[in-house]
Amino acid sequence: MTKEYLNTGYGPNFLVIDIGHKDFTALINPKTAFWTLVRKDHLGSIISDGKFISSFKKKEDEFLKEMETLRFGLKPSAVYFNPTDRCNFNCTYCYIPEKMRKHGANMSEEKLIEGLSILKKYFKTTVPKGRNPQIIFHGAEPLTNKEAVFAGIEKFSGDFDFGIQTNATLLDDEAIDFVLKHKVGIGISIDGPDAKTSDKLRRDWKGEGYFNQIIKVIDSLKDHPGFNVICTITTENMGRLSETVDFFHKSGVKVCMLNIIRCTQEKSRTVKPDDAEAAKHYIKALERSWELYKKTGRKLIIANFANIILGITAPSARKLMCDISPCGGGRCFFAVAANGDMFPCSEFVGVKEFKGGNLFKDSIPKVLETNVFRKVSERQTEQINSCMNCAIQHFCGAPCPAEAYTMNKKDITNRGAFCEFYEEQVRYAFRLIAEEREQDFLWKGWDKGMKQNFEYLA
């Protein structure tokens, strides 16, 4: 049998990346997203190790199949459902245009019930029996249309797993009781550890902030299993991310997301942080969450980062679909606007040319096959010049297509706004793996039912 070598002939291609660790470097096969950590002083020997190459080759097809299924074999199981275009806030970085938020449509209770009926019927064709599809009431601010939303939840409580993403200002005691009774997931947006920071970009139309009201809601929901908090990283709060982690942990929050700002709308770019600066503060905040865990025994899961670790260690276990190529837009989920218009993702709701059809007028399967949906659902890192040769392309996914489209003269085959930020995030994840700390950042029991499918002992 002819001997095979790395990176030549029929041998597999592996790229070496510096993960910023004193002892280890990463060796990655970009095509399959297979990787191994190698001691720097052993790198030369593993590159020429025929046993390593043959062990990988035996499993290569299996790795490829897993990635192909994850990237191209999934069917929609969730909808971001906007019951209104309107919002009682005027956040600087909102992806929905200001005119829509001020004067947009409200979906009537009757139409919302009709829409959920259509979706229930459709999901019977895509979601396995015994599992509920997800409906996330999104916005704008969904609770400005609370009566219709709650009527829909009540009517279809056994048919969907419901969630609401809200600014929390309309969550009074009665609404909180309803949410808890119906086991509705709740995500609350708050951007810092105090009013001065959090309210800077998150204000109502009169310029008023609501931090003090929102923290009371957090206290009421902190023990709810479906509760999480989202903090958007901007120029105005990145320097206080570690303090924000302290605040969330002290407030009893168990799951949060520290999401880098999306720059889909031009106004949001006025508070776009520098990649390197944002990454520095973000990684410092992640380290702070680990310190708090070691000190108190209680984790604060930073879900978007936990998803990066899962994308590296167990790709099919990832929970979020923004950091894979193609992203989940138009293939794992889609968005419905207040008038029933359908978009690949909520980020596109303010980008009219990505309307694929209407929930009340068009067949969902046909909408998913429209050119505008396929532009998103078939967008691959292999088609992006700056990504096609990148070792970590399947741990990053070149997000976000809406952002890439509006920032690059309507060229969706371009990368988004934060390449360096995502690079540093992946390098940090690999450092944690090298230090055997990655489990400290993950949900308890995340690996239940998982199996190891590759082992190589030098």
Protein architecture, described:
Residues 454-458 have low confidence and may be disordered. The protein contains 16 helices and 13 strands. The radius of gyration is 22 Å and the shape is globular. Helices cover 36% and strands 13% of the residues. It starts with 14 loop residues before the first strand and ends in a 24-residue tail after the last helix. The chain has helices spanning 43-47, 50-72, 98-103, 109-123, 146-155, 173-181, 195-198, 211-221, 241-250, 275-296, 303-313, 364-368, 371-377, 393-396, 401-407, 419-434, and strands at 15-17, 24-29, 34-39, 78-81, 134-137, 161-166, 185-189, 227-233, 255-260, 301-302, 333-336, 341-343, 357-358.
Question: Features of this protein?
Answer:
single chain; 458 residues; alpha/beta; 16 helices; 36% helix
Instruction: Kindly state the percentage of residues in helix.
Output: 25-40%
The largest sheet, given as strand count, sense and whether it forms a barrel, is: 10 strands, mixed
Terminal CA distance reads 22 Å
Q: Within the largest sheet, what's the order of strands?
A: 10-9-8-7-6-5-4-11-12-13
Number of helices: 16
**Alpha-carbon Rg, integer:** 22 Å
N-to-C SSE series?
Answer: EEEHHEHHEHEHEHHEHEHEHEEEHHHHH
Q: In percent, how much strand structure appears in the residues?
A: 5-15%
Structural class: alpha/beta
Compute the average pLDDT. 94
Quantity of strands, as a count = 13
Shape: globular
Extract low-pLDDT stretches.
Answer: 454-458
